[in-house]
Structure prediction request, 169 residues.
Amino acid sequence: MLNRLHRLLLTPWYWLAIVLVGLGLEGVALFYQHVLDEPPCVLCIHARVWTLGGIIAGSVGLVLFRLYWGRLIAQLGVIVSVAGLMERSYRAMQVERGTYQGVCNFDAGFPSWLPLDVWFPNVFEVWAMCGYSPNFILGLTMVEGLTYGSAVLLAIALAAFFLMLRRSH
Prediction:
């Protein structure tokens, strides 16, 4: 089974799957925002940025999948992005449950050299305060689903990384 998984990591299909999962996550978020009229909070926007990072890392892996170091760097990018997504999702879940006492405002905190909220306001502009998350699936709210889903994705990404290290080249 590990040999089969390792062979998959050497193909473009693994990286394409990462890109498609990221696009799917972004698509669901935009569907909730623009079709179901569920406005995003700052933590939701941060989750979108981390998801975009995963899409970019997966795209790098798709281009460099034949090179060991390319796969390794891309996989590290996936791990960092999914870990960031999980942290932001968990923080949003804490806010939703009332166990986080931090500040959540309308400033996404983008640097002046990368104002994603100005360039792409329909995707990265904060529209609401934190504290509410719409119902999602299986009785979970959207942030609960994203927190648990990103934990699974992080476990997969870490397993793939360690398999890459174990079977270098």
DSSP finds seven helices and no strands in the chain. The two ends are 18 Å apart (CA to CA).
